[in-house]
Amino acid sequence: MSNPLVDMEKPDVIFCIGTNMTVTHPVAATRLKKAMARGAKLIVADPRNIPLAHKADVHLPLRVGSDTALLGAMAHVIAREGLMDEAFIRDRTEGFETFRKHVEKFTPEWAEGITSVPAADIERAAILYGKAERGAIYYTLGVTEHICGVDNVQSLCNLVLMTGNIGREGTGINPMRGQNNIQGAGDTGALPNNYPGFQPVVDPANQVKFEKAWGTKIDLEKGITKVRALEIAGEEILAMLICGENTVVSDPDRAHCEHALKSLDHLVVIDIFKTETAEIADVVLPASAWGETDGTYTNTERRVQRVRAAVKPQGLARPDWWILAQLATRLGICGFEWNGAREVFDELCKLSPTYYGLDWDLVEEGRHHWPVPQKGHPGTPILHIGEFPRGRGLFMTPEYRDPAETIDDEYPVWLTTGRRLAHYHTRTMTGRAVGSEYLVPEELLEVHPDDVENWGLEDGGDAVLSSRRGAVLIKVCATTQSPRGTVFCSFSFDDVPINALTGSGYDPITDTAELKVCPVRIEPAQTDPVP
Which spans in 190-240 are helix H? Predict the structure, then answer.
C-alpha cells in the first residue's frame, strides 16, 4: 500500500475495484465505513452486488475481465473534462501526451459495449474521482488475477498520476494483501526476479553484493515462477520443496497440478497440518504455528511487526527458518548457521535497502513502515512524497484484451471466484475450527434467481459445473448477489475442487493465473429415481 491503514479514514472519495473488502479484509474495511460516516463518497467496481456495493454512491457492475476498458474510459472522461492535476503532471510525470492521445478512443460509449456498465455511470464515477481533493484507490485479486492483471494495475496508476492522488494523506493506490506476511515474503526475496529489498537479480552490482554476502556463486538471471516450474516438473525439475502452501487446492487446473507434483522424483512439504498437498508428499516436515514462533511479519501497510512464541512447538514441529537452515547445512551450503530469528532478521536488514535502518530491537513495538533507509530514520508511512523511485511517474498505454477464454454456446456462463468470510484460503486452519464450519459448512454456487429458473436448476439442489478442464458437483444457492449470466463460488473446499475448472490463461509478465474469469456450463445434477 502506498498509504497506511489509518489513511483509509481520510479520503473524500474512495474507489474500490476488484475487492470484496468487507468479506476478505473485514477489519480494514471498518476504516472505510468510518470515512463514509464522515461524508466520503464511495465508488465500487465489481461484477457482483457485494455488500460493499450496497454502500456505494456509484456501483459499476462490470463484466468479469473488462477492467482495462472501464479504467481507460474513466481516464478518457477525466481528460475530456479537464479534471487533471496539471501541475502534478508537469512536475512529476512523463509520457502524458502520448497517454492522452491513447485514451481518446476509450469513450464511455465504447466501454459500455464491453463492460455492460452504462456510459453515464462510467462518467459519474470518473468525474467523482477526478474532482476529489483526496481520492484513494483500493484493490485486491479481482484486479490482478487476470491475463491482463498488469494492464489493470497500470490503468489504475494512470488515474492516480492524472489526478495527483499520490504522496498525500488520504490518497494513494493501495493493494490489500491477502495474507498476513505476503508483503514480508516479497520483501525478503521470495520472488524469482528480486533479491531481498526488491533488488533485481539481473543487476551485476547486486550479483557481486550477494555473492560476497552469501559466499557462493550466483547466476545473473531471473528464476522461474511456480507456474513454469510445474510445467517442467518430472522433466527438468525432479524435486520440489513447498513451504506453507496448499498447492493442490489453491492452484488452477488441478489435474495438471496434481500430475506435475506426482511426476517429481521427490516432493517435500513443510506445513503445520497435513494438507491435501502434504498427502502426496514423500516427506512432510512439521512447522511450528504462529503462536509457537518468534519472528517478524510485514503487513499490507509495510509495517514490520515482531511476533513472539507464546508456547513451545508441539511434538517435532520447528520454525520454518530452522527447517530450511538445517536442510541447507546438510546439503553442504554455508551461511545458514543462525541461532535464532533475531540473526535471520538482522541479516535481512544488512542486505535490504528498505530495511537497512532497522534491527530486531527496533521493531519491538511495530512502529516502522518501510522503507527505513538508515539508522534513526522514522520510517515511511506514505510513499512517493515529492518524488518516485524512478524519478518521474510514467504513464502507460495498455490496450483492452479479452480474457483467455470467453463464453460461447458450449460454455455460456461466466464463473468468477473469491473467498468466504468464515473461511480462509484453502481452509487449512479454518476448516478445523468448529465455528467456521458451523457458519459455512459447504461450498455453494451463487446463481441469480432468474438463471436458476431459466437453466432448470433448483435452489438448494445439486448442479454439475463444467469448464474445458473438468467438472464438479456443487449445490446451488439462488441470490441476487450474482448478476444474470455470472456465477460465483470460492475455491476453499477440497470436496468441491473449483480450481479443477480454472486455469485458462496467465498474465504474460507475472504468470498470475486468470482465476477470476472462467467460462462454464451449468446443468442440473441427474439423480437416480427412488425405487
Answer: 204-214, 226-231
Longest alpha-carbon distance in the chain: 80
> What digits encode the pLDDT tens for the residues 356-371?
999 999 999 999 999 9
Identify the CA nearest to 193 among candidates 214, 229, 221, 226. Answer: 221
Provide the CATH number for the domain around residue 419: 2.40.40.20
Tell me which of 241, 267, 285 is where a domain ends. 285
Looking up cell 481520492 gives 135
Task: Please check whether residues 448 and 354 belong to one and the same domain.
Answer: no
478 to 255, 346, 518: CA distances (angstroms)? 29, 53, 20
- What percentage of the chain reaches a pLDDT higher than 90? 92
Nearest-Å Rg of the Cα atoms of the chain is 24
Containing structural domain, residue 271? 224-285
- SS3 per-residue string spanning 358-390: CCCCHHHHCCCECCCCCCCCCCCCCCCCCCECC
Examine the domain organization and report whether 238 and 187 are in the same domain: no
237 half-sphere exposure, CB direction, 13 A CA radius = 18
User: Distance between the two ends of the chain, CA-based, in angstroms?
Assistant: 61
CB neighbourhood size of 330 (10 A): 9
Residue 386 lies in a domain: no
Name residue, grid cell 455488500. Answer: 51
SS (H, E, C) 434-455: HHHHHHCCCCEEEECHHHHHHC
Residue 265 vs residues 232, 261, 268, 429: alpha-carbon distances, Å: 13, 9, 10, 29
Q: What is the C-alpha separation between 514 and 502, in angstroms, rounded?
A: 7
Q: Are residues 50 and 136 in the same domain?
A: yes
CA-based nearest residue to 138, from 222, 269, 54, 24: 24
Per residue in 462-480, pLDDT (tens digit) is 999 999 999 999 999 999 9
Q: Looking up cell 466501454, which residue turns up?
A: 111
Q: Name the most confidently modeled range: 335-339, 349-353, 495-499.
A: 349-353
Cα atoms found within 13 Å of the Cα of residue 507, Cβ hemisphere only: 20
pLDDT digits (tens, 9 = 90+) for 214-253: 999 999 999 999 999 999 999 999 999 999 999 999 999 9
216 and 310 co-located in one domain:
yes
In the sheet that holds 172-175, the strands lie side by side as 58-60, 41-45, 13-17, 135-139, 172-175
Nearest CA-CA partner of 477 in 22, 10, 48: 48
Count of domains observed in the chain: 4
CA distance linking residue 482 with residue 485, whole number of Å: 8
